[in-house]
Amino acid sequence: MTAQLGPQAMNDSTTDEALLRYRSVSAPAILSIVVGIFSILTVFGWVFWIIPLLALVLGWRALKSIEAAPEEYTGAGLAYSGIATALVLWLLGFGIHHYKQKYSVPSGYKVVTFDDLQPASKNVIIPPLAFDLEPTDKDRNKRIYIEGYIYPGRRTIGIKEFVLIPTLGHCQFCRRDLASTEMISVKFTGDLTTNYTTSLVRVGGKFHVDRQQATNPFGGLPYKLETDYFQD
To answer: 95 or 21: whose pLDDT is higher?
Structure first.
């Protein structure tokens, strides 16, 4: 037996279908997901941070308009997707931007490691590369960038000068048999200061070789660094 709807029921059903059929998708909801996708640009440059913010505003406006007139607008799913996409890409862009600021090499600095500064044989105290890193008349702005650890000294706060060494083990066990080429005398320029830390530090500046100290394989400090960049 087939049930048949009465005229009133059919009219109500037709009316409900018409309402569902003719609800328009909220324009801000569509724009929210589109702009949210374009928020990927924050990964390539933090100057685009305004894009995810715009997607969030559009998504919020879409939800408000749908809530105020549910019989006229639809698209809440698009709005939520736009908001979620914008938030994820904003956080990703911020994370990459923060990482670059903290860990990337600043422009104009040559990356150097302590291994680069070690002699290849016992007959040579200072490797030729070390001399090549010094500023010259042709390139007075030559700078290096190197990572290491602060050797513990008497002063722990407001430090203007310290010795940079290659590993934390030297600090923890206070090894005294460090070769002269395993230490760099760091001196801040300008108003730069730091506090003692056991964390890895990143320094940059003008590198110099003290020829007189270079003749002393242990105890001397032939490597000097006039530091204008510091990050811990």
So the answer is: 95
